[in-house]
Design a protein that fits this description.
The protein has 394 residues and is mostly beta strands. It has one helix and 19 strands. It has two domains: 1-115 and 354-394, no CATH class; 118-341, Porin, CATH 2.40.160.
Length: 394
């Protein structure tokens, strides 16, 4: 009942704003302290149909009604900038019981963009309710994060940049899932090759600890390029070699392989753009399994006018489960060990129609399709959904 009241209140707010706002300047943004401080408030309501709520072969579908309310504070004065946000979002499932949720989130960032040394300090906490395609069930968790990013110009053509970070995931209401804590230390040396592109070489150390008192250490060495990759194509790419060392060497071997990350964009003309992303990395799942995942996607966007736009995307990926770790999380009873050699191939496509009345009010309609082909029959599924979303920013 509490979520339904929240949903109705948010829906009433957004609809009232949508009806009452003028086309040119619908809502008021709060500015104070001579324009150095800004406060934005955003309300969103949406309705969707999800054909596979739990991301497994036996999952039913349902209609889902969602709402969210978010506040953002931005300060730009002096050397240190501040970004802070707080939000609450919730969803109601029409027929499936016990899956309704209300999730808060908090974020705080301090940035330094001037002077010889630049960087940022970020802190975050958020509650999440979602379908987990590795555990093949819906999970509820709290996620925590902290990161210190820095950049320092050593000499004219060389710049040192890096990160120290922590991220944690604590699952709620399911003792079969493992909590995760990840510590990261990364360093990259950038060389200014010319005015259009930089070259880089880096090393990243990452330790992941689980609530089962096991851990893995990842070592990644990479080379990369950022800026103008080729004529008309801007972005960043890096490729490297990595290996994962488990704490229990008697059961798990050392895993080795190449790593990759990249994002690029190309403007065909004034209205049409294409962007692409690629990634390959190790991770640890909520089911206590080491996974080597490779994924790539391509997105095309077309701005028909200042108000209307369309986009379409497609993607493919592969998740290879490594070693003897991992558990199939089923109720009732203890989770059996998945064992080695599970492999998931996944592919997806989506299309969106977007309408922006002005900078304060936007509407979008999205259809998406996802297929997971797994050597584990329970993890073999198709998930299709449509969503209509109304967004109003004060």
């Amino acid at each position: 009942m509490e979520h339904r009241r929240t949903f109705r209140a948010a829906l009433a707010l957004v609809l009232a704003v949508a009806i009452g706002c003028a086309p040119a300047h619908g809502l008021v943004t709060l500015n104070f302290n001579d324009g150095h401080d800004h406060v934005y408030v955003t309300g969103t309501v949406s309705a969707s149909r999800d054909s596979n709520v739990f991301a497994n072969s036996a999952s039913p579908g349902d209609f889902v009604y969602s709402s969210s309310l978010a506040a953002e504070y931005i300060r730009r004065a002096g050397w240190i900038g501040v970004n802070a946000n707080v939000s609450v979002s919730g969803s109601h499932f029409a027929t499936i019981k016990g899956q309704d949720f209300s999730n808060p989130s908090f974020g705080l960032e301090f940035t330094k963009q001037s002077g010889r040394t630049t960087g940022s300090l970020t802190l975050s906490a958020a509650r999440s309710s979602q379908a987990d395609s590795a555990a093949n069930m819906r999970t509820v968790s709290w996620g925590y994060g902290a990161a210190l990013n820095y950049a320092y110009p050593v000499i004219e053509r060389f710049k040192l940049a890096g990160q120290f970070g922590y991220s944690g995931t604590k699952y709620v209401g399911n003792s079969n899932l493992v909590n995760l804590g990840t510590y990261t230390a990364a360093m990259n040396m950038f060389y200014v090759y010319n005015t259009e592109r930089d070259l880089s070489a880096g090393y990243r150390f990452r330790r992941t600890q689980t609530s089962t008192n096991e851990s893995t250490d990842d070592h990644n060495f990479s080379l990369g390029m950022s800026g103008k990759l080729i004529r008309g194509l801007n972005g960043q790419v890096s490729f490297g070699y990595q290996f994962r060392v488990p704490s229990n060497r008697a059961i798990q071997p050392v895993f080795k392989g190449f790593s990759a990350s990249g994002a690029t964009a190309y403007n065909l003309n004034r209205k049409t753009s294409i962007s692409a992303q690629i990634s390959k990395d190790f991770s640890t799942t909520s089911a206590d399994a080491s996974v080597d995942t490779m994924a790539a996607n391509l997105v095309a966007q077309y701005a028909y006018s200042s108000h209307w736009g369309v986009s379409a995307g497609t993607g493919w990926g592969r998740s290879s489960f490594l070693g003897q770790g991992g558990r199939m999380v089923l109720d009732p009873g203890p989770p059996p060990v998945l064992g080695a050699n599970r492999q998931d191939d996944f592919m997806n496509w989506d299309a969106s129609l977007n309408y922006s009345r002005n900078e304060h009010f936007k509407v979008s309609f999205t259809y998406s399709w996802f297929k997971n082909v797994s050597t584990l029959a329970y993890a073999d599924f198709v998930r299709a959904s449509w969503n209509i979303n109304l967004n109003s920013r004060l």
